[in-house]
Specification:
The complex is a heterodimer. By secondary structure, chain A is α+β, with helices and mostly antiparallel strands. Chain A contains 13 helices and ten strands. Classes of the chains: A alpha+beta, B alpha/beta.
Chain lengths: 385, 229
Amino acid sequence: MIFFEFAQRSIRLHWLRSLLAVLGIVIGVVAISSMGILGNSLVLSVGEALSDVGDTVVVYPHSGGFGGGPGVQTNDVITGRQVQQIERAVGANDVIPLHVGADRIKVGGEEGVAQVYGMETTDIPLLLEISEGVYLRGASGAMVGQALAETYDLDVGSRITVGDESLRVVGILAERGVGFDINPDQAVIVSDQWYTSVYGEEDYDQVIVKVRNLEDIEEVKNAIDATLNRRETVVDVFDTRMILETILETFSTISTFTTAIGGISLVVAGVSIFNVQMMSVTERTKEVGIIRSIGTRRREVMKMFLYEAFLLGFLGSAIGGILSFGGGYVALLIMLQDTAYLFAPSSLVYIPYGMLFGIGTSLVSGLYPAWKAANLNPIDALRYE
Amino acid sequence: MGDRVSTDQPVIRLDHVSKIYPLPFGDVVALDDVSLDVERGDFIAVMGPSGSGKSTLLNLIGCLDVPTEGDLYIAGRNIRELSDDELTDLRRDTLGFIFQQFNLIPLLTVRENVEYPLVLKTRRRESKGLVEKLTRRVGLEEELLSHKPSELSGGQSQRVAIARALINEPEILLCDEPTGNLDTKTGTLIMELLEEVNQQGKTIIMVTHDPRIAGYAHRTINLVDGKIA
């Protein structure tokens, strides 16, 4: 294809100018791909940290927000009768009613404050994993979160005073991270019986429903809503998957935004390609006049200049694509201290995306100069010196 | 689109052709009601002072421009009725251009320059030795085929331009001061070559200032103020 050869030779002839234009595209593609990889990795990392609670429906007493949340004083509660109604509404799914509070704790000479969760001992294995010791069975023991155990140097068998009552630690929970249902890492887990006898609270602050089949989440949510909120809103029902999706959506928006910032450098690169192509058209005006006069059609002239823009974009995008691995790696290392997400397909896809944008930008930038060349008057172009 | 003309009709016909350029300070009449028939195999020299309309006439016959008034037929086709692509194809297939400054394409080698119009026409590279045959015909050494135009002398460049103009076997050759940039000896050689090409049946329209060069033509047209004197 003779017009493709024209384009190649023109690039070789003006190699320095072409190199600078290619460099612009390289920077643009690396920026857009690296930012995309970083954003996507952020979403993946947040998603992974939170996804273990995706099968949960959380019921709080209605108070216009997370009224019964840990450490929050509220008069709103979920009664035992309402718990029974929830159990009937959700069928075979596990219902875990919780007392949530906070109290002073004392370990040896050290004092502090910790969250206290009270629940049926049979429910504990449904909700929490253990790392040391055993699950709580009797009324007088306690389990502690991993972070709390580390802070106070607690082991299985240690004694911890909650309020004025001394409890023996029977088990230490596995680290769970931030959750939408409960946050047990810094908490003490006690039996429902102990909590009721010490604090005198019969009613519950929160009910967690573990849904066995993820597809039933919406149905479970609606069933609770229909049973308890029929006349007036007495409980708020949250689907953690929905909360998770909202958070992931937010991170995706941030990711898109950072990628768009990367895209600005591609716009700058596009301006550079435009400039190079305009110079090329100006310098080759006489050549255009010659080839037009001896029988080259307008669209063939246009093709010739578009090939040139395409080649610059393709070269820049190919080099940029390769360097994006490095750029993404460095960005992840600095921002997340974890490069594992670089190789996730949803991260890697930003490299071909970046490359396509690079080529697209070059073609769009080369469009006007190519059009201008194609529409030169052959007589004027032939006279051009 | 005009019908093909039979062989006894003129290969070029100007019928009351005028070309007027509208300019801010008033219209400029470059050609004024010119009528002319050029027969197949003719060799015509166009002479006249600067600004007499010689280049305008050559641009019109070369389908690089269209008349403001009147009709111009090239190989039986009225160029006014043709689209830009059709005019381009007419330049490629029916006309051959030879310029004073040679106007070779600097990015291409001599071989590529010669075969360029043929590649445009056939969409593929020439492979049947046509380029070699043509370069021999115009008296160019084959070793030069791989050279770039910048490595050629004036005479060699004009021979390449003639070979390029002939590759698609056009009916008409348009020459704009073909010896203007050459020394007398080389100019004579180029004119002898054009004379030979004309004897082989090509119609030649040649613009020149030089009466000695015009002497190679069968007839001379003098243009004065856009009119044939």
